[in-house]
Amino acid sequence: MRAQRLFRRVLAVRHVLAAAVVTAAIAGLTGTGMAASATPSSTADLKTVPFEVSGELPIYPKALWRNGSSGADVRKVEARLIQLKLLDKQYLDNSFGTMTRSAVKKFQTSHGIPPLGYVDQNTLTKLTTATHEPTQTELFPPAPVVDGKKLDQRCATGVALCIDKTTRKLRYVVDGTVKLTMDVRFGAKATATREGGFTVGWKSRDHVSTLYDSKMPFAMFFSGGQAVHYSSDFAARGYSGASHGCVNVRDLTKIKVLFDQVHVGDKVVVYRS
């Protein structure tokens, strides 16, 4: 009996000691770890915000139009930015892209607005005050007229390779003025040249097609493997032949000049008049 009572006392002491250790550990965590996490280690952890703060979240002005937006309202904003010479005419295209964003930032900076790069109500109000209502001509510049025919409307602004399948002509157009005109031919029925609006993706002065093992000098690619380039076959055979989808040019002198004038990102418009 005495041995049993002694054994029970030993167990009780062990329970008391274990409880004391747990209590001390909790107190240590509460006094150091939690307190430390509640206090920034340095001022570098503190972040400032440009506008009013509600709780811990910054309140930014609501965006009316931003990068990726499109439509008639975006075109009006672009036209106003063009009036202020903050945006080039070639970017009047209903699409809020990186150039429009850059122009918006410049306007915001010059008018004491945080340069967020999107149009909020405050920016729109100040932009409207600083400009006049865009005219129809400013919004939709008239298409150039060549030999009594209007070019595609998309060729009216900026820099464009305006390629007409009907007249088989390529025209290099800058802000509605035709700078160069040259004869071109297109792909055969099975390898038709794609129609639509594109941009020059990349250029290659001495390009050789790995698919057809043929030379494509002064190539300006605009849609996958399709490019505007010089063709010795076109120069020799004329329209009796066809390309594999590219826009062939037969005047070597002219395409050399064109190649040096055209930049990556310039518009390419392939259409039928």
From TrEMBL:
Domain L,D-TPase catalytic: residue ranges: 159-271
Protein name from the UniProt record: L,D-transpeptidase family protein
Keywords: Cell shape, Cell wall biogenesis/degradation, Peptidoglycan synthesis, Signal, Transferase
Keyword Signal included in the entry's annotation: yes
Pfam families: PG_binding_1, YkuD
InterPro entries on file: LD-transpeptidase, LD_TPept_cat_dom, Peptidoglycan-bd-like, PGBD-like_sf, PGBDSf, Transpep_catalytic_dom
PANTHER family hit by this protein: EXPORTED PROTEIN (PTHR30582:SF33), L,D-TRANSPEPTIDASE (PTHR30582)
Keyword Metal-binding attached: no
Range of residues in the leader sequence: 1-35
Pathway note: Cell wall biogenesis; peptidoglycan biosynthesis
Active site: 229 (proton donor/acceptor), 246 (nucleophile)
TM segment ranges: none
